[in-house]
Amino acid sequence: MTFLCALAASLVLMASAVAADAPSRSVHSQPSAILATKDVEVAVTTRGGHMAPVTFFRSSDRPVQPYYVSPWQDEAPLPMPAPVLVTLRGDFFCMPFGGNSAEVAGEKHPPHGEIVGELWEVVGTKQAGDVSTLTMEIDTKVRKGRVIKELSLVDGQNAVYSRHTIEGFAGR
């Protein structure tokens, strides 16, 4: 009996860890990964990992989209003074926050860091019980390391749970 319980628990853990392809589409001119439940839909740009639009109460007669999308997103692309402006919308993780105009210790970072303007890899989505999670990651070049973005939705809740994990970085 103990063996069967352990086997069943292992199968459940394996099933919840299997990443499926995340749905994607162009949202306000930007390729985006989509995570959705009956109540919430989240779009995250693959360039920069910007989260918006987000629709809460989407199955109601009064859905809410509180996040801002810059007005030039649906216009012809123009050269931008900083990569963050190309996809500018909603919520995004900045690291390092500031930009430096001259190299410091051999590093020159764009405003808000390189992760807000470079391509993120969509690792996939997973379902574990009533929690759906989208995972994306980016390897940085200016200062070597990795950032992992996890956005989760819980069935029946109008909330987005966000976690960013940084790996391999060293300060100076």
Blueprint (SSEs and pairs):
Blueprint (H helix, E strand, L loop, with lengths): L1 H16 L6 E4 L2 E7 L4 E5 L5 E5 L65 E8 L2 E10 L4 E10 L6 E7 L5
Kindly list the characteristics that best describe this protein.
single chain; 172 residues; mainly beta; Beta-galactosidase, Chain A, domain 5; four-stranded antiparallel beta sheet; 8 strands
In short:
With 172 residues, this protein is mainly beta. It has one helix spanning 2-17; strands spanning 24-27, 30-36, 41-45, 51-55, 121-128, 131-140, 145-154, 161-167.
Describe this structure in words.
This protein has a single domain (2-167), classed as Beta-galactosidase, Chain A, domain 5 (Distorted Sandwich). The chain has one helix spanning 2-17, and strands at 24-27, 30-36, 41-45, 51-55, 121-128, 131-140, 145-154, 161-167. The chain is built from 1 helix and 8 strands, in the order αββββββββ. Strand 3 and strand 4 (51-55) form a beta hairpin. It has 172 residues and is mainly β. The strands form 2 sheets. Strands 1-2-3-4 form a 4-stranded antiparallel beta sheet, with no helix packed on it.
